[in-house]
Amino acid sequence: MNTPPKDRYFLWQLSSEHEARIRYQEYGIENNGKPPLLFIHGYGAMIEHWDQNIPQFTDTFKVYAMDLIGFGKSQKPNVRYSLELFAAQIEAFLHLKKLDEVILVGHSMGAAGSIYYAHLKPEKVKALVLANPSGLYGDSMDGVAKVFFGLVGSPMIGEVLFTAFANPVGVSQSLLPTYYNQSRVDMKLINQFTRPLQDKGAIWSYLSPSRRPQDFTLDHLVRPCRYKGTAFLVWGAEDTALPPHKIIPEFQQLLPQAGAFIIPKASHCIHHDVPQAFNERLESILDSIL
User: Fold this and answer.
1) 37-40 sheet: strands from edge to edge
2) What is the CATH number of the domain that holds 233?
3) What angle (nearest 5°) sits at the alpha carbon of residue 236, between those of residues 233 and 237?
4) Per-residue pLDDT for 59 more than 60?
5) Number of folded domains in the chain?
6) Which domain holds residue 229?
7) Which one of 6, 210, 230, 251 counts the least CB within 10 Å of its CB?
8) Contacts with 98 (C-beta within 8 Å, 6 or more apart), sequence order
9) Distance CA 203, CA 214 (A)
10) Dihedrals phi, psi of 145, to nearest 5 degrees
11) Other CB atoms closer than 10 Å to residue 148's CB: what's the count?
12) Which is nearest to 181 in space by CA: 276, 110, 106?
């Protein structure tokens, strides 16, 4: 984005004991007769991870994006992080902006949270556009990865690993495998992902998926889920963590109506890895449903 949009915040009372200051941004045109787009980032990311995508749609749509609780510039309280919590945040945001219907564009963990929300509130979702969603894994996670997540889930070891990785070098090592076009992992991106790791409470949100992985899966949802509306899966062909040939069939059990598109020469962070191809696919999807 050439001119950085204004950061906005709202105070979310997520329980009787906890509240959190949530960052969001809004762009585009009002009252154009189309449902707005709401972009939901993935694990460790933030609004800026969409900076190659959102500007392409602000001339024709009202567009919103927000930092999930525990990430970006949103507050990071010591609460139980989960897909359910992220779905509750989406609901709070729609209530704040008085939105009756929205198109959710989610990446990875943000896509999983979007599915969870659509399952709970199907009447509020016009369409789901899911970029390399997490939440269903089949047998894609190898033994080494399972051992690693087990270690990270151990409180003392997890804190040591968090400290070791919460710096530009560690962030770079974490980001590179999620990109096919690794030149995209530049210092601007690395710094964007590093800064929130220094915030108070970051260790609680960042370690939650490894400490309580069951809170970040969609395995317990009925198949098919309650959302019967329009849905699309957009996947990077070179995603080695969540390979499309293994994972897309899992998601199509949950969302049998979902169309699937595989984009070549792209990995897990597809929207930022190949932004032009992703934007063209998203534009085509939006044209087909509106």
Assistant:
1) 8-13, 19-28, 62-66, 37-40, 102-107, 125-131, 230-236, 259-263
2) 3.40.50.1820
3) 110
4) yes
5) 1
6) 7-288
7) 6
8) none
9) 18
10) -65, -40
11) 14
12) 276
